[in-house]
Amino acid sequence: MKQSAPDLIFIPNRSSDCLLGEAFGTLRPIFSARTSFETVCLLDLADRALLRSRGLLLAHEHQYELLLPGGVRHVQAGQISGGSVHEMPQGPTRTALEELSASQMLLHLTRFRQASRHVALLDEAGQIALGLRLIDVEGNDGGRGFIVSICEGDITDDRCVAFFNMLAELGSTHCGMGAFYRTTKASSEFAANPEIKLTDENSAYEVALELMRRNLALARGHERGVIEDIDTESLHDYRIALRKIRSVLSLFKGVLGEDDVQMLKKRFSALMARTGGLRDLDVFLLERHMVRDLVPEAFRDGLDEMFERVGNRREAEAVRLSDYLCSVGYLDEIKDLDRLLSGQPLLAKGKNADLPARSFICSQIWKRYKALCKLGFETGLNEADEKLHALRIQCKKLRYLMVFVASGFPKSDYHHLVKPVKRLLDALGRFNDCAVQISYLEQFIKTLEAEDGSGRRKEMQASIIVLIDALQMRKERRRAKIAKRFRQFKHGEAQKEYRKAFRFKSSFDANKD
Fold it and tell me: Does any domain span residue 433?
């Protein structure tokens, strides 16, 4: 019988029970009993190959199930074990995933409940004209729907028209982004903080590799958004994922061999360097309307012309970065980094590799918190911009460490502990934005000085000077805000809470007070 390759179909806001008792033209439906509902995990590869191909990878308690258009279904035994296809046992699902994409990093998108039943649409002779599998879906917030997978038959057969017309009336759509993702609360992007169940049963080495694997997968998940220049957040999130990998390399001291640490730092720094120019331009342009309001009306036309020029530079920089992310050199580098972090014993262990992960990270949090308090930025009023920038970097590292252990604390306790860090980082970030804008404007004026002395150039230059003065005043106000946030951060009560939460979580005495 002729076999076509239809998409998986999703019917939102309905149960497959709505088809019971219906007639489909000359075809007679035979329904099997529905299975019990179970919780499954929806996964995708880091480059979103399944999302693009309109397939689904479902992780059940003891098996993986891969559904692809055309009724293709692969099932193999196995349990969710991490972020890499390499960690799946050999089987048809793993083979199909390896053939589908060069990316080997898996990400968990969401969990939902499902149950399934089979349907055969029989013709007058009792032969199967269409074989279907219906998968009922229940989201965590009460959303529901069902998937229709065509397992057998020809969807172009005229006898099937009545069935597909009914699906259309029910609001059928392909099983990808949109209704299915809204129902299951999955995201076309990936979660910024992939959850890792952290215990002292894991070694620091195992957790370091897992954190780097998952954040590399996160970065890869945002590549398409950067390449297509969908929005500025794609690049921002791509950079955050790479920055977290670099933080693991610098914060998990003695966990990996020093030669490997230096090699990875160099390679990830090179990837970051490619993105810095575009991100700086994005930050500058994102606040164009806000900073425009800082200057008198008479100077705004000059600023508009400046922003137009900056926008042109930004477009050119976006094209350069897109070309790089599509280049053979970049793809080869990412593939090799993926291989190094794949969970195989390719990276040397350091002296702290076998320490219990939770205790190790908690001791590092306490150590870094104490170091930040000792920096002595009590006022923040007279410190050079460079020192405040250095403080911001150190705060980010503390924040990342706390993200790494978030799963080990009740949510209310964790949010209470992380709140002073986030507030200090917000104040430092707003200050840094001003400093970056001022620096960029000063460089922009230098480029104008190389041009002729036309009236338009002079008008633009005058507008920029006025804007720099306004930004300087804003920066000083934000400098004072840092002082307030830092006092809250190192307040006596805060220190007691950090000591209680992190110092005494350590089961080894690696960092004495």
Answer: yes
Pairing of strands 38-45, 173-174: unpaired
- Residues 176, 280, single domain; the answer is no
pLDDT grade, residue 279 (50/70/90)? very high
The model carries a pTM of 0.65
Domains held by the chain: number? 3
**300 and 207, same structural domain?**
yes
Residue 38 bridge partners (DSSP): 114
In a domain, 327, yes or no: yes
Give how far Cα 204 sits from Cα of 193, 295, 355, Å.
18, 52, 6
Give the domain range for residue 238. 193-353
Q: Return the bridge partners of 77, or none.
A: 63
Helix, strand, coil percentages (3-state) for the chain, rounded to 5, are 55, 15, 30
CATH of the domain at 37: 2.40.320
CA distance linking residue 513 with residue 366, whole number of Å: 9
DSSP class per residue in 269-318: HHHHHHHHHHHHHHHHHHTHHHHHTTS-GGGHHHHHHHHHHHHHHHHHHH
Specify the pLDDT at position 400.
87
pLDDT at 155 over 50: yes
In this structure, the answer to whether residues 223 and 175 fall within a common structural domain is: no
DSSP secondary structure letter of residue 2: -
- Which residue, 464, 256, 207, is CA-closest to 356? 207
Task: Name residues whose C-beta falls within 8 Å of residue 130's C-beta, 6 or more positions apart in sequence.
Answer: 27, 120, 121, 150, 152, 153, 154, 155, 157, 160, 163
Using CA of residue 227, residue 231, residue 237, residue 243, what is the dihedral sign? positive
In sequence order, the β-bridge partners of residue 115 are 136
